[in-house]
């Protein structure tokens, strides 16, 4: 329940992502903002991600100073202000500034939510619980698509103001509900609030029984590691560039960069345009196809949520990357062979005369989305949140999450231009990035499923080469502890 409530933070970003892809196709929006070209559309879309970058960077201070719980509340408050300003935007400048403000809120939540979830979840189901974040993201995208589709029938500015205003509701719900959720026990122990931490662990693990062996073991494990970390290092930003944390920071940064270089947000933001190129006529048909895209994205996130702690992080990422490579190569090849370029205003677009080629393009868009939703979508939020030591976890994940958002910003800026300038070549570029992502995981990302957060130092200390690391060789503290019951005092 705690992790599910926190995951509403993911719904806010997912909703906005689905929102803008629909709004950019609405005639009242285009008319009201003087028919922005591809560059201006990319600017209005990507300004939220620039705000997310700033929010992710400042989230570490909030998480360590105020707590993970109160940092989530701050993120909600900032998002609500930005959303209200977006809803009432009267010109392009106001829309851009309000999206930056809303993005700061999303950036805070995108880092703190998986961090909070990872610190409350037991290791055997940690991946599953953090996946709730991705369920919320894809659920938000799906809901936004259908709200946008319904509002596309409206002929006034309400067609885009209603979808923008609706996103305030889940932010208010999260802000209210998180007040009733517990603090992270690891954060409490780091702040010397041991009795509160034990009470939280007892409630989460044993129905409130402070004397339960599982509660006592986990408390002692966390306490031992937190105490030793404070004796060895200060937990400053400087430690992120020093051994042994530096290697994990680089791994986390590269994983989050590749999350955006998969091209997922190009597909999500501009899928209606791709579907229109593939031969779907009018305004409704591409938006309807995008609505189906959102449902597929949501449904394919469910199996990975159920089985991630059985499948593991590493193999799932590699299979997903290869699936996306195949989908992109197929899309690019079909466009190159059967597509005919033509001028669509100031942009170059693609048209098909071949019905089979048109349907195949749409099919491979859906295959790509399925591969992404079953792998990189959820796991790239799980992996960075679990690989760092407690003393620098918030700071390190703020850097990796900020990397996600800055690459999101860059891709959103460049993709619509490349989509016009090199058409099918963009998909070949994304295929190459996905192949590099496969290689990064194979060589550098060890398997973390079932490993306690306090045992990650031992896991990453085995070898630099991930294919040589065996997670089952980690000496889990819970297994090695004496079975003699200790009483917390």
UniProtKB/TrEMBL annotation:
Keywords: Membrane, Transmembrane, Transmembrane helix, Transport. It is a multi-pass membrane protein. Its main location: membrane. SUPFAM superfamilies: MFS general substrate transporter. It is found in: Membrane. One of its GO terms (cellular component) is membrane. Residues 2-449 form the Major facilitator superfamily (MFS) profile domain. It holds the Pfam family Sugar_tr. The chain crosses the membrane at residues 42-63, 70-90, 96-117, 129-149, 161-183, 249-271, 291-308, 317-338, 363-384, 396-418, 424-445. Belongs to the major facilitator superfamily. Sugar transporter (TC 2.A.1.1) family. NCBIfam families: SP. This is Major facilitator superfamily (MFS) profile domain-containing protein.
